[in-house]
Fold this protein.
Amino acid sequence: MARFWKELIYLLLMQSFLLPLAFAKKGSEPLYTEPFDLAAGGTCLTRASQEGILFANPALLPLGGAWIRWFGIEMGTISDKDSASQGRKGLSGLDSTQIINQLFSRSLHLGQTFSLSFLNKNVGISAFDRIELDLEGSRYDASGLPAINLGVEAYAGGVLSAALQPVPWLSLGLTGKYIGLAEPDISLPIADPAAVQANIADPNALRQQVKYGLGTGADFGALFFAQGHTLDLSLALKLDDVGGTHLTGGADKIPQSAHVGLGLALHGNTSVLHLSLEHRDVLGVYEREPRFKKIYLGSRLMFRKLFGVAAGLYQGVPTFGIRSDLWFWKIGLTYYGREMGDYPGDKQRNLIMSYTTLGF
Amino acid sequence: MLRAALRTVLFILLSHTLQACGTASKATPYVSLSEEQEARKALDAKDFERAIELYKALIEAEPETYARYPFLATAYAGQAGFDIFETLVESVVTSQGSHLSPVDVIKSALPADPNDLQLQAMASARDTILAIPADLRSKTNAEASYASSAALQLEFYQAAYPLMYMNRFVAKTSSGSLDPDRLASMTPEDAAAILDSLRSAEGLGGDLGTAVSSVLSEIDAQPGADTKEKLIQYLSTHSS
């Protein structure tokens, strides 16, 4: 019986890595958010970092004003705070009762991000991926019976952006993207071991539940800004997946969505404090996503481009992060939370992301 | 003046940041939960009374939304002191050691001396599932997402009810032996109710049905003039 539980867990985890991708996009969150922007409550429409610009709002490109704004790679790992503080004990070394109790007392959330990008004031190109796994036991999920739930978010692809600034107060940008997407949710009711054993005996039956999608799409962004000596104001408008992004493999189309953001920046010669407020999916195309998940609030403080601190609210959960810029090498830490359920506190994950970048 | 303004803004920002320290969601005061979400939240928090109140209201408003019935049954079972999750954990633990039957596994997860409220709650859990049309509480129904769970819950509750009922008569004295007065308090109606419930559980089949059938056979094999005496004899010899 203990072997049954371990096989089940490893099967669930292996399924998520063997599958390329699948599904339709469930929420209005960007496919990729630069970790420092995540620390600033995930706000990125009026200000974004490095390669995050291409996914957040391509109209931000001209604000850099450099021939080489960024060229490098970024790598990050994500884990829940409990796992990070106790170390990765994993499931090995635990007896079957401990495995079950651990799964049902707290969730397990792991992930990684990667990007390779080049940006200047008019164009940008990036290859990226983001994979996150969420494993939890729920006492009452399977219509009142215990279940083990595995959620996967897997995104990868490439983006190409171009932007221009026709007048000093307006910037326009366009991003073309080729993406693969998968967001399977698998729930196994453990009160019925016979049904679970059947799945273990036939992994293809489980794999059939998941389909992956590949597709091309486009985003459009606009940035209106008033730049003063010490105070800047900006208003960002963005359309994601213009006309809808059609995916192969029977996955649902990613609907066109609209986002709006406000930004305020106080700056001197070398430091800047940026405050942001954003509302994603203002037209409500992601009907199942509750409103509190569409509001983003954040702040960033950069000291002489060497050190940055950020804080905000991401899906209502406090975020905080620090970053040190050592020219070719940057390191950073972001604490944030995600609400995986339908209301605040339902299935909240408290996460920590450590990341490093190499580039200039 | 700019530096003063920056310092002021920074101070305000930091004070708000410090308030935001911690991991609790700040969106909670601004989000209204639906009645269904409130019911589920109460269930997750094991506030079974509140969960029962909310699910009953939801079912009364929409009696043909059968997806809510298994959740109400779970809340009743929780009120009865029966936790299916603990039963499953116990089944894993016992599978590593001694070989206990499904009936013994369920018995170990039941209150040792249930009161009237707990027994009534377990009966309500069973009856709630029985209120679902038979085709919608079937393991073979792939269209209704709750059908398999409802069928499984019925198996558990049909077996748990008579076992819990029997526990009412096997209280121990301070010396550890069975209390004869408690045993003798069993009425013929109690015995009939217990045996009827056991037969209903037997009829559901599966490993649990087989184990219940074995219990019924053992009861029938006991000496005694009627079913009540046989049942008392069975409890005397099988309660440790």
Notes: Helices of chain A lie at 2-18, 35-39, 52-56, 81-86, 96-105, 193-201, 203-207. The radius of gyration of chain A is 21 Å. Chain A touches chain B through 49 residues (CB under 8 Å). The first strand of chain A starts at residue 70 and ends at 80.
